[in-house]
From TrEMBL:
InterPro entries registered for this protein in UniProt: C2_dom, C2_domain_sf, C2B_Copine, Copine, Copine_C, VWF_A, vWFA_dom_sf
CDD domains: C2A_Copine (cd04048), C2B_Copine (cd04047)
Domain of life: Eukaryota
Protein name per UniProt: C2 domain-containing protein
Family: Belongs to the copine family.
Chain ranges of the C2 domain: 4-131, 138-261
Family annotation (Pfam families): C2 (PF00168), Copine (PF07002)
GO annotation, cellular component aspect: plasma membrane
Keywords: Calcium, Metal-binding, Repeat
Gene3D superfamilies: C2 domain
GO biological process: cellular response to calcium ion
Length: 523
């Protein structure tokens, strides 16, 4: 297990709204009732109702549960809670039988309505609602669990391996995967992460993964974390191998003899006198973090920045790059900012060359406190304001965003992208860490053009790539930064030409290099 704790001094400040995490699950009985309607794969879609318009707007979706009787959705909904407002929610359940993201192609399985206040006010923050919407059918029930999120913004990177797990498959060994849960005050557990499945082995080594510490334990380092070990089965009836409990504080100690956990199966332990354990889980690696400043190697953010920057800076004549951070408390008063200059100078956000950007980035890590929510739209709008002042073809703006995949203002970001598509600018997004990047894929718009309130972006201006695709098997060495730069920059020329053509801007006569259109880059 690798885990890292960010050393940031807490700064007192008022949070704009209480951030609530809502988890969706259902009892095994209810899930059987839902799946009996031929719901081999199901997801839940959350809609929120506008206070003034009363219109329902899609807020987010869970991941798809693939034919399983372990009906806990890992993907959460993060909502701002306002005590003085009635925040109406609608949860629709669908059977997913196609790869399309279009809800109209899914089979409707039922829905339920409640308010955010109802979930929070329920005993233990746990509300169970029956599904309705299909006359004459028993549709089961959905369980909602709410918890107020702490201000902890630490990111943990973990990796685990196991040894001598129980053999579960008749014709093979086992196909193990791990499920992480954090404990609740009422003694129940809330799912917070699933690893990938490692096929046909009793000694698996799972890939490193990152998880916000507040998702794992809500910032309480001594809070119990339970880990279940399962053998994956195609039909969804995964076999329980065993479990162990620990805490994030123990995880964060890294590799040592105390971080070898016995995987115990209570049923086996009760039946077999000579039962010892069903295997062990331990740590194959050393602590690290996405933002960790290793004195011997650049972190993923820095490597991605340098790889792309070294190429694209050649197209900027003055080599001055405005560089911004988003999602942090700034000294001296702890003010929250979603678009702060890494240079620390509000009047001059420019950094000299890519080396100057890197220097400002590392200096910023030492002075700010990483803090949520993580909003993309302010930075996009910041660059858009610069781009809208120069639409004659003399300048083109490229915004490079490097992120761990967490995005808190998806609707506002979609609106910002749609508006920016009419301006001389492109957006490159590089996702670092092994998190899910569904939101980034949606912004990329290669399959379905980004839209907001029925308006589609007139151009595809976003290019997204996951950084992990450019790393070797060990997970910490860059395989080919040249290939990364090539892939993220591949669409820029076509996007630039597309803007010029739609605006009727003709190529100018042959000019000297200094007279060519300037490719302004923001980071």
């Amino acid at each position: 297990m690798m885990a890292s704790i960010g050393e940031f001094d807490p700064l007192n400040n008022i949070v704009p709204a209480t951030k609530i995490e809502v988890t969706v699950s259902c009892s095994e009985r209810s899930c059987i009732e839902i799946i009996s309607q031929h719901a081999d794969e199901m997801l839940v879609v959350l809609y929120v109702q506008g206070i003034g318009t009363k219109e329902w707007r899609e807020f987010g979706r869970t991941e798809v549960i693939d034919n399983t009787l372990n009906p806990n959705f890992v993907r959460k909904f993060f909502l701002d809670f306002f005590f003085e407002e009635k925040q109406n929610l609608r949860f629709d359940v669908y059977n997913v039988d196609s790869r399309s993201s279009n809800i109209s192609k899914f089979d409707f399985l039922g829905q339920t309505f409640c308010t955010l206040g109802e979930i929070i006010g329920s005993t233990g923050g746990r509300l169970e609602n029956s599904l309705s919407g299909i006359p004459g059918k028993k549709l089961g029930a959905i369980i909602f669990t709410a918890e107020e999120l702490s201000n902890c913004r630490d990111i943990a990177t973990m990796q685990l391996c196991a040894n001598k797990l129980d053999k579960k498959d008749f014709f093979g060994k086992s196909d193990p995967f791990l499920v992480f849960y954090r404990s609740n005050e009422d003694g129940t557990f809330t799912i917070c992460h699933k690893t990938e499945v490692v096929k046909n082995t009793l000694n698996p080594v799972w890939q490193p993964f990152t998880i916000p510490v507040r998702a794992l334990c809500n910032g309480d380092y001594d809070r119990t974390v339970k880990v279940d070990v399962y053998d994956w089965d195609r039909d969804g009836s995964h076999d329980f191998i065993g479990e162990f409990t620990t805490s994030y504080r123990d995880f964060s100690r890294g590799q040592n003899q105390f971080n070898v956990y016995e995987v115990l199966n209570p049923k086996k332990k009760g039946k077999k006198k000579k039962y010892i354990n069903s295997g062990t889980v331990s740590d194959p690696s050393q602590p690290t973090s996405l933002h960790y400043m290793n004195p011997y190697q650049m972190n993923a953010y820095a490597m991605a920045l340098k790889a792309v920057g070294d190429i694209i800076q050649d197209y900027d004549s003055d080599k001055l790059f405005p560089a911004y951070g988003f999602g942090a408390k700034l000294p001296p008063d702890g003010k929250i900012s979603h678009a702060f200059p890494l240079s620390g100078d509000n009047e001059n956000p420019n950094c000299v060359g890519i080396e100057g950007v890197l220097e400002a980035y590392f200096q910023s890590l030492r002075t700010v406190q990483l803090y949520g929510p993580t909003n993309f739209s302010p930075v996009i709008n910041q660059v858009a304001r610069s781009a809208q002042d120069v639409t004659d073809g003399s300048q083109y703006f490229v915004l490079l965003m490097i992120t761990d995949g967490v995005i808190s203002d998806m609707l506002q970001t979609k609106e910002a992208v749609v508006n920016a598509a009419a301006l001389p600018m492109s957006i490159i997004i590089i996702g670092v860490g092994p998190a899910e990047f569904d939101a980034m894929e949606e912004l990329d718009g290669d399959e379905v053009r980004v839209s907001f309130s029925g308006h589609f972006a007139e151009r595809d201006i976003v290019q997204f790539v996951p950084f992990r695709d450019y790393m070797d098997r060990s997970g910490n060495q860059v395989l080919s930064m040249a290939r990364l730069a090539k892939d993220v920059l591949a669409e820029i020329p076509e996007q630039l030409l597309g803007f010029m053509k739609t605006r009727g801007i003709e190529p100018r006569p042959a000019l000297t290099t200094s007279d060519l259109p300037d490719l302004h880059r923001h980071i």
